[in-house]
Amino acid sequence: MTQAITNGATIRLFLVDGTPQGIRVVNRSQWTGVCLAFSRADYASARLREEFRRTGVYLLTGPDPDATGPDVLYIGEGDSVAVRLDSHQRNKDFWTNAYVLTTTDDSLNKVHVRYLEARFIKIAMKAGVVHLDNGTAPDLPWLSEPEIADMEAYLANMLIILPIVGVHAFEAPITAAEVAKVMTTDGIESRTTYFLNAKSTTAEGTEDSRGFTVFEGALGRSRHNDHVLQLPCDTRKANGGRRAGQTWIRPDPPDQDIRLRQSIERRKRAVRWQQERAH
User: Fold this and answer.
1) Percent of the chain, pLDDT > 90?
2) Cβ atoms of 106 and 78 closer than 8 Å
């Protein structure tokens, strides 16, 4: 969704304690929405801020507890997000970072944030790049037509802001239709395809601003056995592993993973050299 934006956007990032890893307040010019981003280590300090006492949506993110799957995401909402986050601070162990999505004028109400929570969950489920810790996918509550327009505008702005603070759960991997769009108006290939052929590994892929995507039909090996696994759909390498639909395949042993990355880098250098030579 974020790539559909064609106009420029001014994003303001405020480092509360002056460090990039600390508490951050992010908003967009001429908009009342705001995102408060912080790590679990900064929870006590973040809780003192005004955003915690407002109505809003919150995201909790962290690595897979078993270290075998994608990152975990929990999406929630609350009249005062502090109440819900205090409970999660005590009872949910997986999360390492949190994001409070609210407004500077506290203009969101309970139905608004229920709508936003349901929309965020649906988008994350469709993208399929994280494991959702939510037990259910709630239905959209009733809102008037103007309110729906307002909430969709809020959602669109937040989907621009969230990748800036490191949340990529709502960005779908590159699609087959996007892969097909490789020719510009002057007939020059605009996206490079990389190939890898090695022992028990055959793959093609490409990269864009969202990362490196391995195309459907790639072959790879699991860590604990040597049989070949065929990946049934488009995959994106993330956190050292390979996602195939909703099945997470463990990464190869470190030495083989290093060879894989070195092969890709050699291929990239060769393509750049060929392009420079052509010019």
Assistant:
1) 54
2) no
Burial 63-91 (b: 16+ CB within 10 A, else e): ebeeeebbbbbbbbbbeebbebbeebbee
Fill in the DSSP letter of residue 168.
Answer: -
Mean pLDDT of the chain: 80
At residue 44, the pLDDT reads: 97
Question: Could you tell me which residues are beta bridge partners of residue 229?
Answer: 220
- Range name among 137-151, 195-209, 214-228, 248-262 with the lowest pLDDT average: 248-262
Identify the bridge partners of residue 56 per DSSP, sorted by sequence position.
78
Where does the pLDDT of residue 259 fall: very low under 50, low under 70, confident under 90, or very high at 90 and above?
Answer: low
Strands (E), the chain: 11-15, 24-28, 33-39, 56-62, 72-78, 97-103, 131-132, 194-198, 201-208, 211-214, 219-221, 228-230, 235-238, 241-244, 247-249
The SS3 assignment for 180 reads helix
- In sequence order, the 6+-apart residues with CB closer than 8 A to the CB of 195 are 203, 204, 267
What is the DSSP track for 15-75? ETTS-TTS-EEEEETT--EEEEEEEGGGHHHHTTSGGGGS-EEEEEEE--TTSSS--EEEE
How many CB atoms sit inside 10 A of residue 115's CB? 26
Inter-residue contact 176 to 139 (CB < 8 Å): no
Pairing of strands 72-78, 131-132: parallel
Distance, in Å, from the CA atom of 129 to the CA atom of 73, rounded to the nearest integer, reads 10
> CA-CA distance, 101 to 110, in Å (whole number)?
13
In the chain, the percentage of residues whose pLDDT exceeds 70 is 68
Could you tell me which residues are beta bridge partners of residue 230?
Answer: 219
Residue 4's Cα: distance from chain center in Å?
A: 16
